[in-house]
Write a structure and sequence with these properties.
two-stranded antiparallel sheet, Rossmann fold, 14 helices, nine-stranded mixed β-sheet, alpha/beta, about 45% helix, about 400 residues
């Protein structure tokens, strides 16, 4: 290795070390993604709620599920009396509408049977809005602050200020005869409903447009944490079935590389390593690959050898030896393939060979007779060779 190459390598190593040191001392950027996942400790995850929900709902028993609503409720439906074997409230907290049609139908039927559904999300399924005669809209704001309050006399004097992550969605249409407005939000002096109670069948829907109220960011804020507790207090006593998701992406890999790819510095270091290794393999394989010699496979000369030996015996006129060799080979094949004793070529041998080969019994008897004839004669002709050859081929 020459001096110039060593200098280049040392310079490259110093650059890499410098990048690592700078990146290690740099503060990690905050992830403001609204994942609303129970394992996420980012501002808009639900890690705090997942740990504190039992204290927020002291008169309820919380059961978590991660499947779809249909997959969760369908096994609990009794087809005998068309009712559910469980009663309680369904709790949903997410950024967007994540219901498939089957789950939405199951949700409506569950509430109609006298249960409760609490949905906190920035937009709702259009089918659900049409069914409940409700609609929502969005308002653009010139300020970054939203003010929330609840209409209940106990909470009426309390006003909560939300800035980051608050939704601008609100309900601009309600069923005035049935729906009850439970809370409002104020944006630029405009006041809109953001929390509704809508009866459906024997049960009720609670619709809330601000899922950020349940996030880590606001639950750890003493001034706003009460808003979450006050909202949940509207749930009737009993069981609460919470559709929670562990991570922001439920299809996340369980591979050890998941952590590496989640950290920008480690991710790019991993990509550079792979690119470098691939480049090294391509160039070195091309330059150092030895020439692979062409090896001609060995030819199978068994058939040619047999023909040569056969012609030799035929030219010598030794027909007796040819027949003898054919008989030896034939009997060896019988012993190997059919595991029969060929010492006594009697009636028992003929019957057993007939059973195992399925060949005509008369052909087998003919071969046996020719073998015995050959063994009793010391002289053979070309006609005898042809005759016993044909007889053996019929059985083989």
């Amino acid at each position: 290795m020459n001096r110039t190459l060593k200098i280049y390598i040392a310079f490259f190593v110093l650059i890499v070390i410098g990048i690592i040191v700078i990146d290690a001392n740099r503060s990690k950027p905050i992830d403001w993604t609204p994942s609303y996942a129970t394992k996420d400790k980012i501002p808009f995850g639900l890690f705090v709620l997942d740990n504190e929900i039992d204290s927020l709902l002291p008169n309820h028993k919380v059961e978590r599920f991660q499947s779809t609503v249909y997959e969760f409720l369908d096994p609990k439906y009794s087809y005998d009396d068309s009712t559910y074997t469980v009663k309680g409230s369904l709790l949903f907290i997410s950024q967007n509408n994540e219901f498939d049609q089957s789950s939405l139908d199951e949700l409506l039927w569950f509430v109609e049977q006298g249960n409760t559904a609490f949905l906190s999300m920035t937009n709702f399924p259009e089918t659900l809005m049409d069914t409940l005669k409700t609609d929502f809209g969005n308002q653009y704001s010139l300020t970054d602050s939203l003010y929330f309050n609840l209409n209940n006399a106990v909470f009426r004097q309390q006003k909560y200020v939300f800035k980051k992550g608050a939704s601008l969605s609100y309900f601009n249409k309600t069923d005035s005869l049935n729906a009850t407005v439970l809370g409002h939000q104020e944006i630029d002096t405009a006041r809109h409903a953001n929390f509704l109670k809508v009866p459906f069948g024997k049960g009720n829907f609670y619709l809330h447009t601000q899922p950020a109220a349940f996030s880590n960011y606001y639950l750890l804020n003493k001034k706003n944490s009460d808003y979450c507790a006050n909202i949940l207090s509207y749930l009737p006593k009993g069981k609460v079935f919470w559709q929670s998701k562990g991570y922001g992406n439920e299809e996340i890999s369980g591979s050890p590389l998941r952590y590496i790819t989640s950290q920008p510095a480690l991710k790019w270091a991993w990509y550079l390593f792979l690119i470098g290794m691939l480049t090294f393999i391509i160039f070195n394989a091309k330059r150092r690959q030895r020439v692979i010699p062409i090896k001609v496979p060995l030819q199978n000369t068994t058939v040619d050898f047999t023909k040569t030996i056969g012609n030799l015996y035929l030219q010598e006129g030794n027909h007796y030896v040819i027949i003898d060799k054919k008989i030896i080979y034939f009997l060896e094949k019988i012993r190997t393939d059919y595991l029969l004793d060929t010492f006594n070529l009697d009636e028992t041998f003929i019957n057993r060979l007939h059973q195992k080969t399925g060949k005509d019994k008369s052909d087998i008897e003919n071969v046996v007779q020719l073998i015995k004839k050959h063994r009793n004669n010391l002289d053979s002709t070309e006609k005898d060779v042809i005759e016993i050859s044909k007889a053996i081929e019929k059985i083989k």
